[in-house]
């Protein structure tokens, strides 16, 4: 099997087991990175967790992981009704944590800081056009209470679902916190998703209310959020009775009488006090839809108490949060990273959160670094795709700005190639700052594997070791742990953890089979291939299922295929990933048409139309980079598409696989663009 490099130039690439060839035991790593970067003495001296304290936490968790989480939950969160039972595993793998305790997430993020630091900045917001707004903890609390009262006045009750479709903004955090305050379950839909994706999510969640904006700014353009909501609701959306609209771009959007209400008008009359709803720890705080290996995105359901504990502690441990930190996680609130490290984790720790609405290159390639300088950002957390894109633009951009306040850098969303890691280290970190490469997922709720920066030396491309209380293994296809260093296998989590997903909304059977079925409920199966080196460091090799990672975003190949076949001219489609220098993976689609296959300009026009069609069905992030029109797909005699072959073709590799078992071997030359 060929070594898999998730992007060109990777040095940590190891072969990844794929859907068809799950012979993980034969996977060995190649070209292991050997550079090691210990934390600086200056960082260690001030770190919240040094090696000894970290070792003590690990020892405590290993001795009794339930008691460990119970102690931390008691000490770190406010409980209105204390829990008596830490873990209920009677319905495993539907685990329940702190189930008889009652709490409220918004109280833990806001109210508990009012006495000690009410006038400290909770949020610093900058819009793409340069408008800046700040909120102290007191001000944020007041805005959250006003919106919470407004939502309640519209008839939203505990447990009702509210869809949030807003630009990346302070108001998005306010909306999430307001839902949490009254016990409504939010489901944030990323503003880049299309009306059609929004509609599917509204329907699946059975949401009562949508909170949106007239628009948002991105790349100098208006993102037409309200228009998408109107389109989503025009095609049905019977569960939605009201739409709250934030005025942001002020470009005049139609309002539907009796349904649409302006945020500012609605809040003008609301009280700045709102009694929190004390909910059970297991109460669903939010649903977040993510791609799996079928065409239908999964509504990942997270809890209140366990989720908050994970977001709170991981933010503290991994980012070494201190009272004077300005924490900037660049992820949009529409993704899990924006939930845990914009809306919840840093606020529950009382930090100042930076939020930037727009694109990194508007008006020029120095925008991120200008923001870091002007807002005094101390902790910067972004995705490898952004690092690679910024790296391409040249180091003269960051070098123009004073980045001396930065003290910690983070990476998330996909494997970081050592070249990008070294650039981050040298150009942004000035060879002094620790880099925390954090592995986790929508489903895990919080960071699972990452270096604790004052304690764990880093290696470029490795997310290092699990956090205290998180137990991982690499197993082969029979579920047996792989013990030889460097040997690849399935990454699994062997014990439940508080911030784990609770179920898939409306489909518990899918939850049980997708995450626990493979090894008979023994392990949580992450869907990633990985290997562990002789020092116990984890190296993530990418997804083992039909999920792509495009610019750090998950995308199911089946979702893109369904979008393509919904076009009237498409008979069949197969989508695979191909390595991409900046995006990590790019979407490559093979399309079989109904009727005659066009050529020349007609084919070009159709390809363009199909790309737009996918953007309309899913969102711009899913637009295929390449579409190859062909007369057929490579299928075995039993009718199975040989995706492995398609992946090789997409990569432009010579076909060395045996194609004699194909029903139509002649098609291979055509698919490869030679026929
Ligand atoms: O393949 C892994 C990759 O992103 C997947 C999870 O995607 P999502 O649920 O969208 O969450 C992304 C942000 C937490 C994982 O299964 N991934 C995430 N972080 C890393 C990573 N791969 C390698 N290294 C990471 N640090």
Automatic annotation (TrEMBL):
The modification N6-acetyllysine is found at residue 640. It is an enzyme of class 6 (ligase). Acetylated. Deacetylation by the SIR2-homolog deacetylase activates the enzyme. It comes from the Bacteria. Residues 559-640 form the AMP-binding enzyme C-terminal domain. It catalyses: acetate + ATP + CoA = acetyl-CoA + AMP + diphosphate. Residues 1-20 are annotated as: Disordered. GO terms for molecular function: acetate-CoA ligase activity; AMP binding; ATP binding; metal ion binding. Residues 111-497 form the AMP-dependent synthetase/ligase domain. Mg(2+) binds at residues 565, 567, 570. CoA binds at residues 218-221, 337, 551. Residues 55-109 form the Acetyl-coenzyme A synthetase N-terminal domain. Its cofactor is Mg(2+). Catalyzes the conversion of acetate into acetyl-CoA (AcCoA), an essential intermediate at the junction of anabolic and catabolic pathways. AcsA undergoes a two-step reaction. In the first half reaction, AcsA combines acetate with ATP to form acetyl-adenylate (AcAMP) intermediate. In the second half reaction, it can then transfer the acetyl group from AcAMP to the sulfhydryl group of CoA, forming the product AcCoA. This is Acetyl-coenzyme A synthetase. It comes from Stagnimonas aquatica. The lineage of its organism: Bacteria, Pseudomonadati, Pseudomonadota, Gammaproteobacteria, Nevskiales. The gene is acs.
